[in-house]
TrEMBL record:
Listed transmembrane segments: none
Domain HTH tetR-type: 14-74
Keyword rRNA-binding: no
Keyword Transcription regulation: yes
SUPFAM superfamilies, per the entry: Homeodomain-like (SSF46689)
UniProtKB keywords: DNA-binding, Transcription, Transcription regulation
Residues annotated to bind DNA: 37-56
Pfam families xref list: TetR_N
Protein name stated in the entry: Helix-turn-helix domain containing protein
Length: 203
C-alpha cells in the first residue's frame, strides 16, 4: 500500500468516526443513553451494521470518545497550565483546582446544548457505565497528584476518594442524571464552590 493510499484510508476512517460521533450525539441528546442502540446509530449515519463496533469497539467506548471530544477541550489549556506549574514547583491551591472545573461547567450549563452534554455525562458516569477514557483528565490520577501537591498531608487514597466524591457531587449538580431532561433552573454555583473546596481541603 502506497503512502498516499494510507493517508487516504486514515482520512476516510477519521471522517467516518466523526460522522458516527455527530449522529450519535444527536440521537443521544434527543432520546437519552438507554434509548439509543448501536443499530440506530449505524442506520442514522448511513453506515453498515458493524460500523460502531469497528471504529469504537462498543457503544460505551463511542460515548466516551464523544464526551471527550466535546468536553475535554473546554478545560484542557487551564489544566495543562496547572500541571506545568506543579512540575515547576509552583503549587496550585485548592480553590484554583475547583475553579478550573466549575468555571467551564458553569458556561456549559448556560447553553442548551451544553446542558444536554452535561446531562449525558452525568447519566453514563453516575449510572455505572464502564467507559474507557483516553484523556488523562477524565481519570483521577492527575487530579490526585494536583490535590496532594496542594495538600501534602493527604495520602494518595484519601486524595482519590475526595476527588471521587467531589466529581460525583459536581456531576449530580450540573447533570441532574435522574431527571428525564436537563436542569434549566439557575444553579447556586457559589454554594457548590464553597462546599467542594471545603471537602477537598479539609484537615
Amino acid at each position: 500500500m502506497s503512502e498516499s493510499t494510507t493517508v487516504e484510508a486514515v482520512s476516510e476512517s477519521e471522517s467516518t468516526r466523526a460522522r458516527l460521533l455527530t449522529v450519535a450525539e444527536r440521537l443521544l441528546l434527543e432520546s437519552g443513553y438507554d434509548a439509543v442502540s448501536v443499530r440506530a446509530i449505524n442506520t442514522a449515519a448511513g453506515m453498515n451494521p458493524a460500523a460502531v463496533h469497528y471504529h469504537f469497539g462498543s457503544k460505551d467506548a463511542l460515548v466516551a470518545a464523544l464526551l471527550e471530544d466535546r468536553l475535554a477541550p473546554i478545560w484542557q489549556d487551564a489544566l495543562d497550565l496547572l500541571e506545568r506549574r506543579r512540575r515547576d514547583g509552583r503549587v496550585p491551591c485548592v480553590p484554583e483546582l475547583v475553579d478550573v472545573i466549575l468555571g467551564p461547567l458553569g458556561e456549559l450549563a448556560a447553553d442548551p446544548v451544553g446542558r444536554l452534554r452535561l446531562h449525558l455525562l452525568a447519566r453514563v458516569v453516575l449510572g455505572g457505565h464502564r467507559l474507557e477514557w483516553t484523556s488523562r483528565w477524565f481519570g483521577l490520577r492527575s487530579w490526585t497528584e494536583l490535590l496532594r501537591a496542594a495538600r501534602p498531608g493527604l495520602s494518595e487514597r484519601e486524595a482519590t476518594e475526595r476527588w471521587s466524591l467531589a466529581f460525583q457531587l459536581v456531576l449530580q449538580f450540573f447533570g441532574d442524571p435522574l431527571a428525564r431532561t436537563p436542569r434549566t433552573s439557575p444553579l447556586p454555583l457559589g454554594t457548590l464552590r464553597g462546599f467542594v473546596i471545603a471537602g477537598l481541603a479539609a484537615a
